[in-house]
Design a protein that fits this description.
GO terms for molecular function: mRNA 5'-UTR binding. Homodimer; the beta-strands of each monomer intercalate to form a hydrophobic core, while the alpha-helices form wings that extend away from the core. It comes from Bacillus timonensis. It is found in: Cytoplasm. By secondary structure, the protein is α+β, with helices and mostly antiparallel strands. It has 2 domains: 1-38, no CATH class; 43-77. The protein is 42% helix and 26% strand. The protein has 1 helix and 3 strands. The protein has one helix at residues 45-76, and strands spanning 11-14, 18-26, 29-35. It has a 3-stranded antiparallel sheet, with no helix packed on it. The longest helix has 32 residues, at 45-76. It is elongated.
Length: 77
């Protein structure tokens, strides 16, 4: 993990397209601004993990449904 120290209004660049700017610091909270192209998805980590979990559950449901449909189709013959 890279650890950097930045002050308010200072930025960090990630590649050519992403810039993270420190907007304010208040106690233990830090506000950051992220400037990135629209095709780059940006989520808080807990939201990202929830999305991944939902996607995994949806894909598993699809596999289970296809298996059941296949069984039903074979039995209908």
């Amino acid at each position: 993990m890279l650890v950097l120290t930045r002050k308010v209004n200072e930025s960090i660049k990630i590649g050519d397209e992403i810039e993270i700017t420190i907007l304010s610091v208040s106690g233990e909270q830090i506000k950051i601004g992220i400037d990135a192209p629209k095709h780059v998805e940006i989520h808080r980590k807990e939201v990202y993990l929830d999305i991944q979990n939902e996607n995994n559950q949806a894909s598993q449901t699809s596999v289970d449904l296809l298996k059941q449909l296949n069984i039903n189709f074979k039995n209908a013959r």
